[in-house]
Design brief:
By secondary structure, the protein is α/β, with parallel strands linked by helices. It contains 8 helices and 8 strands.
């Protein structure tokens, strides 16, 4: 039999353990891209051989235009998750993305961690961006990607109330700080192979912008996208996110 002191110690450890598990569970649910604990999100379809190129944090006057040229030359359609304040600053570029046939999604107004701000701030970030994009593009946006992938129930609930499908991913590297396009492409190729072995298509995240800098250098990311297109176009189908129904997560 445990002494009262020992029993108290074990009880304390149990409480601490439960708290640690709860914190760990929240971190997993809020940040791990394929987690569905806080609600359903579109990650990828059960279609090995299909690839969705997605680009975050633009539009970027220095690099988005070059990226559009590469996509046009290869007849590849992609998805751009735009930061609202940058779309407002680069209205013609945002319209050019749409005119080229690409899909545009909401990536919040200022790129905060939506899991850490108030519900009112979450709604302001999403509504302000969707309103701006609808005014710029002349049509509503139907897809949403939370910055950093960070979400909680109110984030996903707000997006769905606004008629948007939350979109995450299953292939990303640290392309925002990696200076080698070769390394970015090679790491993504490894993730694509892993997804295909598991029977999944791949949603790839690259960055044509930086949330803190409208004109950030995104040469390595754009060049990596070009490498991926050259490598996979003969054998794979590139799609925008709307090619996959919500039921095919």
């Amino acid at each position: 039999m445990l002494s009262p002191l020992s029993a108290s110690a074990y009880t304390g450890l149990g409480v601490l353990g439960a708290a640690a598990l709860a914190v760990g569970g929240f971190q997993y649910a809020s940040l791990w891209p394929t987690s569905q604990l806080f609600g359903p999100t579109l990650v990828a379809a059960r279609k090995p051989g299909e690839l969705a190129l997605t680009f975050d944090d633009g539009p970027n006057p220095a690099w988005t235009s070059q990226l559009l040229d590469i996509l046009a030359q290869n007849q590849v359609r992609a998805t751009f998750f735009m930061v609202g304040r940058f779309a407002e600053a680069e209205r013609e570029l945002a319209r050019r993305v749409l005119a080229a046939g690409h899909l545009i999604g909401n990536h919040s107004w200022s790129h905060p961690n939506l899991a850490r701000i108030s519900a009112a701030q979450v709604r302001e970030e999403l509504h302000r961006t969707s309103d701006a994009l609808a005014q710029i593009l002349g049509q509503p946006v139907r897809y949403f990607r939370p910055p950093y992938g960070a979400r909680r129930p109110v984030v996903l609930g707000t997006a769905r109330e606004m008629g948007m499908i939350p979109v995450l991913w299953n292939a990303m590297t640290t392309d925002w700080k990696e200076r080698s396009a070769d390394r970015i492409a090679q790491r993504l190729e490894g993730k694509i192979s892993r997804n295909e072995r598991a029977g999944w298509a791949t949603t790839i995240v690259l960055h044509d912008g930086r949330h803190s800098d409208l004109g950030a250098d995104r040469g390595p990311s754009v060049n990596a996208a070009q490498q991926l297109i050259k490598h996979y176009r003969p054998t794979h189908r590139f799609v925008a996110i709307d090619a996959w129904s919500e039921a095919e997560k």
